[in-house]
Design goal:
Shape: globular
Low-confidence stretches: none
Number of helices: 9
CATH topology of the largest domain: D-Maltodextrin-Binding Protein, domain 2
Radius of gyration: 20 Å
CATH superfamily of the largest domain: Periplasmic binding protein-like II
CATH class of the largest domain: Alpha Beta
Strand content: 15-25%
CATH architecture of the largest domain: 3-Layer(aba) Sandwich
Largest sheet: 5 strands, mixed
Mean pLDDT: 91
Strand order of the largest sheet: 2-1-3-10-4
Length: 315
């Protein structure tokens, strides 16, 4: 029997070294201990390229793939058996031989505003400084409030909160899911309505990656997989793939499942927020990828193509 499908008593789970990444990986580790008490799962921490370069925007250094590259290389070499990622950090195109084997139930996908004075988004003073590393958030905030000043903020969640307390920003924006997972939801000033800040593709969801032919790992993860979350994330990622977007482009999407239908809302915007195109497509859950592609086509036809060409310098 091939090594990739044989049963093993010891597994190595790869993870980034941040406090949030470790918490997420330990949660998966605990679930696997429940499902397979005879299998030992140890964590191996990686410092990815995205973790090392903190002084420039992601869009300038290669985008979200920088948070998974070293971990995926370890998967392909057999150094580790599985890896836990935040789905919003995973590129739509995976290396040959790897797959997302499991998508657990999603946490709250919304963005959270944390302000020093307790002001809600609409009440922030004119010219308030907002810290975020996301062009998606930047474009939407400037679309709603052109008076705001958006400044780059990178680093782990605790680092970002510290910089806010030190007075570098009037407010910062973080994913609700990360704050909840770390027990820091009490820090949230306002849960931002998706009308103000539509989430990132896959935000709030985890993806467990492994070798595509690893039947043993796939079987262990089966109980942890959440079908509705997987379908929703599939639709969102299909939209991103159709738009060929990365961290250089303000793209957002959020899918919801009701009965056998998926409703996908998405947008593409210029970096300065002056142009923002938003639309919705619905379809059956069996056609989730097609729903994402159709929404992508609609956004492109309504002016998204022009926005993308301007951003990529191909206009």
């Amino acid at each position: 029997m091939a090594a990739s499908i044989r049963e093993r008593s010891t597994l190595v789970l790869g993870t980034r070294g941040s406090k949030l990444a470790i918490q997420q990986s330990e949660w998966v580790q605990a679930r696997l201990r429940e499902y397979a008490p005879d299998v030992s799962v140890t964590l191996r921490r990686f410092q990815t390229s995205g973790d090392k370069i903190l002084d420039v925007p992601l869009a300038n250094i290669g985008g979200k793939g920088l948070f998974v590259k070293e971990i995926e290389e370890a998967l392909l070499s057999g150094e580790i058996d599985l890896a836990v990622h935040s789905m919003k950090d995973v590129p739509t195109q995976l290396p040959q031989g790897l797959a997302i084997l499991c998508v657990p139930q999603r946490e709250d996908p919304r963005d959270a505003l944390i302000s020093r004075t307790g002001c809600a988004f609409k009440d922030l003073p004119r010219g308030a400084k907002i810290g975020t590393s996301s062009l998606r958030r930047q474009a939407q905030f400037l679309h709603a409030r052109p008076d705001l000043k958006i400044e780059v903020l990178r680093g782990n969640l605790d680092t970002r909160l510290r910089k806010l307390r030190e007075g570098h920003y009037d407010a910062i924006v973080l994913a609700v899911a990360g704050l909840q997972r770390l027990g820091w939801a009490h820090e949230i000033t306002e849960y931002l309505d998706p009308c103000i800040s539509l989430p990132a593709i896959g935000q709030g969801a985890l993806g467990i990656e492994g070798r595509q032919d690893d039947v043993f790992i796939r079987s262990l993860l089966g109980r942890l997989d959440h079908v509705s979350t997987r379908v929703a994330v599939l639709a969102e990622r299909a939209l991103l793939d159709r738009l060929e977007g990365g961290c250089q482009v303000p793209i957002a999407a959020y899918a919801t499942i009701s009965g056998g239908n998926v409703r996908l809302e998405g947008l593409v915007a210029s970096v300065d927020g002056k142009e923002l195109i938003r639309d919705v497509v619905e379809g059956t859950t069996e056609c989730a990828s097609e729903v994402g592609r159709r929404l992508g086509e609609r956004l492109l036809a309504r002016g998204g193509d022009k926005i993308l060409k301007a951003i990529y310098g191909t206009a």
